[in-house]
Amino acid sequence: MAPKSITKLDQQPIKLGDHTHLMRQWVMLRAIPRHPRRVDAPTIHAKLSDLGMIVSLRTVQRDLNTLAKTFPLDFDESKPQGWCWRQGAGQLEIPSMDAHAALTFTLVEQYMQNLLPRSTLSHMAPWFDAAQGVASSQASTVTRWRDKLRVVPHTLNKIPAPIDPDIQATIYNGLLNEKQLEVTYRRTKQSRHTPRRLFTQMKTAPR
To answer: CA–CA separation, 104 vs 94, rounded Å?
Structure first.
C-alpha cells in the first residue's frame, strides 16, 4: 500500500501506510538537526514511535551508523551519542528545490543580508548554496528574474559607517532573543564614554 501523505516533522504527523525500511531512514534523516545542534538516538526513537514506526532503539542506532556511511553525519562521544549533519553539509531536499524557490532564496541572500541575524544566515547557508546551484543549472525566465530586478533607494546612497561584525551579531542576537544590552556610548566629538542599557524588545505605537 502506498504512503498516504508525507510532511515535515515540525509541521504535522507523517501518515504512512507501509512503514518500510527506506521510509523510516528518510524520516530519521529529516529528524537530525544541522551542526551545532544535536539529537540522540532515544529522541529519534521516540519520534518514530509517535509516527507509528515501532522499532527497537537498537535498530535506530544501527540505522544511524549505516546512514553515516553514506550521508555527511557527525556524532559526539557523549552518552547517549548526539547526532547532527556535518558542518557545511548540503541541504537534503525531497523533492528537490525548484526554480521558484531558488529565486526566492537568491533574492533573500542578495537583499536581506543586513536584516537577518548572523545565526539565521549561517543556518540558511545550505539553502542559499542549493539555490545558486539551481539557478546555474536550470536557466529559465524564473531564474533570470534576479538579473532584471534592482532595488533603488528613494534618496541618494550614503556611505554606511563601518560596523564591527561581532558587535552587529551581538546586537542582532539580543534583538532576536529579546534581551537587554549593556553598551558604552560616546557622543560625536566627545571623548567620554557613558554606560547605557538598551531594551531590544519590539514595541508598537498605540492606535
So the answer is: 18
Report percent pLDDT > 90 for the chain: 16
Asked if residue 12 is part of any domain, the answer here is no
DSSP 103-115: HHHHHHHHH-TTT
Q: How many CA atoms lie within 13 A of 168 on its CB side?
A: 12
Within a domain: 80: yes
Task: Dump pLDDT digits (tens) for 67-110.
Answer: 999 899 999 988 899 999 988 777 666 566 778 888 888 888 88
Residue 86 corresponds to which cell in the numbers above? 556535518
Contact 85, 73 (CB under 8 A): yes
> What's the domain range around 46?
21-85
Question: CB pairs under 8 A, 24+ apart, for 54-57?
Answer: 54/19, 55/24
In terms of DSSP bridges, do strands 73-75 and 193-199 run parallel, antiparallel, or are they unpaired? unpaired
Query: In the chain, helix, strand, coil percent, each to 5?
Result: 40, 15, 45
Domain termination residue (choose one: 56, 85, 114): 85
